[in-house]
Amino acid sequence: MNPILPPQFYIPDVEARQWDDGIVYLYGSCDKCGESSYCSQEYHVFGSGDMKHWIVYPQSFQSKYVHRPQSNEVPLYAPDCEKIGDRYCLFYCQEHGEEGVAYSDAPYGPFRGARGIEPADTDGIDPAIFIDDDGSLYYFWGQYHAKGGKLDLESCRIIPETVTENILTEEEHGFHEGSSMRRRGDLYYLIYCDTDRGAATCLSYAVGRSPLGPFEKRGVIIDNAGCDMATWNNHGSIVCFHDQWYILYHKACFALEMGGRKACMEPIYFDEK
User: How deeply is 210 buried, as exposed, middle or buried, from its count of CB atoms within 10 A (0-12, 13-18, 19+)?
Assistant: First the structure.
């Protein structure tokens, strides 16, 4: 089963999304095997109706289309995507901390018309978007300290009075990066990259009663410690497909330290007690 995507693709930082067409779409960074750094200058989108066979939608977005292009060579880091109104909104970040959003009429792009997200555009990494049941948009970002707030998409600005610092911290929760929010019933689940094993090998989760916290760390779901010592980071998300929940994550392949991470998936189960 793992890795789950066609063998020529090295896709870490996977966010899984499903809307009204019965397809699960995967969004992630794109490593180039054998290169000496994480991520490349493009994203691909992958779609599946059975979580086994995947259609590839290549080059859904590239560095040259960002809101403040510096060079076509600047890598694109972990993205997220959500359908907001009639548009699909791709939230991206770059190596130097710029974060923005680009738009498409289709879940697989191409995504264009990029705009920066303030204030995340100055210190951003790993954007995550969440729509609550009342339609409110929440945006998360950050490394070592998870930040979040309500997003006004029309102005591409996080509403200042809602900006919340230290939703998760490295000191209290082991938070490294890679926020991903989901809601199940009355609980909000924040999936994140955790340093619980001394390095950022884990995907853990924290639970709260509000999108902006407070959150209580509940434990580790995926632990890559020891499975491949050539890499140390992890990043993923959870999704429900046909009443079964899955966790998406990545791990290095072929003992490559960088540029060789692949998307993987496991079923997960909730303890209802």
Answer: exposed
Which pair of structure tokens corresponds to residue 50?
Answer: 């059975």
Residue 102, judged by CB atoms within 10 A of its CB (0-12, 13-18, 19+), counts as: buried
Sheet hosting strand 187-194, strand order edge to edge: 175-184, 187-194, 202-208, 215-223
Helix, strand, coil percentages in the chain from 3-state DSSP, rounded to 5 = 5, 50, 45
Question: Helix or strand or coil: residue 122?
Answer: helix
Indicate the pLDDT class of residue 68, thresholds 50, 70 and 90: confident
Extract the tokens encoding 192.
């994140």
Report pLDDT digits (tens) over 94-112: 877 889 999 999 999 999 9
Three-state secondary structure along 17-80?
EECCCCCEEEECCCECCCCCCCCCCEEEEEEECCCCCCEEEEEEEEHHHCCCCCCCCCCEEEEE
pLDDT in tens, 136-154: 999 999 999 999 999 999 9
Paired with 55 in beta bridges are 47
pTM: 0.95
Lookup: tokens for 149: 């707030």
Render pLDDT for 80-90 as a digit per residue (tens, 0 to 9): 999 999 999 99
Lowest mean pLDDT among 94-103, 108-117, 160-169, 203-212: 94-103
